[in-house]
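task queued by scheduler; priority normal; single chain, no ligands, no partner chains; default sampling; output format set to structure tokens
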Amino acid sequence: MGEFWLTDEQFAKIAPHLPTDTRGKERVDDRRVISGIIHVLKSGGRWTDAPREIYGPKKTLYNRFVRWAAKGIWRDLFETLARAGGPPSQVLIDSSAVKAHRCASGGKGGQSHAIGRSRGGRTTKIHALTDRFCRPLAFLLTGGQVADCKAAAQLLEGAPACRIMLADKGYDSDAIRRQIEATGAAPNIPPKSNRRWKPCFSPVLYKGRNAIERMFGRLKDFRRIATRYDRLAANYLAAVCIAATVSYWL
């Protein structure tokens, strides 16, 4: 009936990386609960809309999602599977803006939780690194008003070793170019029109940059990624990591 369920092969890939330090009462069936969480992210519905007869109580699904998000388990799972793919020859960097629903307001802690105001209203930016096969390697969240080149410095700190880094004009700054070159990679970024000295640039290699656009498009097939409903940045980042894991690394 359209509900999501992890296959035997998919669950076998993630099972070795799930927490084993459970104390007290034994944890409810991981496969059923994780399948229910993914179903909610894909459908875009409320937690209470997940079929109880298939996935169990809504409270179990929500608590597992939130508690593991706070511990960084979903992100660690994504990064572990992404590293297993081996070092890429090319890395692509870009961002995509996501509309924040009104129910995403009110995150505790006196923080913005990566929600800002831009021309599109209240938005969150997902900054990402991928390989040339569209497979995501790392994510970073900021408010929608944050410039790509400002967020890139932090995102590139965890970039895997590669030979070529592809990016659009939004990343054309001397600081970003030096940071990429310091890792041993060659930046292939189209120079801005106001540059006096034009760095080397290959239009042929640049054609492959659309891979990261396709990655964002596939992530946004998950309706709770295409629109942000989570108040806390940690929860929304966890949702992005789960969607990336299911779409590309399982």
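post-processing summary
- The chain has a mean pLDDT of 91.
- Residues 116 and 143 are 4 Å apart (CA to CA).
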